[in-house]
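Researcher: I'd like a structural prediction for the single chain below. Treat it as a standalone chain; there are no partners to consider.
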Amino acid sequence: MHVPPACTVSTNVALRVSFRAVNFDAGLAGNSIVGYRATRRSRSDGLMKEGTRIMPSLEEFRQLVHEGKLSEAFTAYELDFNSEAFDIFGKQDVQGYETDIYWSFEGPNKIKMNKSASSDGGTGKKIYYLPWNTKKVTSVQLDGTSPGYFVTSHFSNCRFTMNYLDAEGKSVFVQHVAGDTGGGSMAKGTQERDDLEIKVPQAVRTRRFSVSGHKAFAKSGRELMKERAKQGTTYYDSCARVFGVRSTSGGWVFYMQDIDHKEKVIGFKDSK
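Model: Treating it as a single chain, here is the predicted structure.
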């Protein structure tokens, strides 16, 4: 995690990937939904219906998810959670845990993930939460017995490693590798996280979400990033949010919200 001031604010989510096989509806849609079909979106003030602005709401967000309009839902709404409320501090051995989460709405267009129920949060959804640990690695193996949703701490210089243990992605060993090493987002930090990362020789495929940061400003760093990209690393700019979903076929897919140093979301990437 190691979140600097530039990464502590809520951010809009810009979705640019396909969620074809992912059952998001079951996780976010909730119960009763206000029915309508959005035709146009205002950049900051919610969605438009037949030229008339509809005020943002949790019900509107759920409706878009229910209709499979995830790109619209995650572009029009900020999705955020207080990482400190979920993380574990002051312990050497930090373990992940299962917990129920609830959704709430905060104006003008923020959807928050909470540990406690709110009046409009709907039915709680169980997730597996993986906290970070300073200068260490936290990890868990996700499979068909795990909750269908996964979230980990906010990222700033951290690395997220996905070791797929079968071809279908139904069993995945995931790691949150701490970013508060001496090398930070420089090439030295890449080597430090290489040393921290747990080696999983039985993995049939490995993917990583990792910071580009200062590496992108040096030729040697850009060459390192290019080589790592060939090996399955996807880069984020300065900060990131990572979550995973078990698809209807049982395979796990992980998603990364990419945030730049100006606190703006510049992309949404997946682990495929």
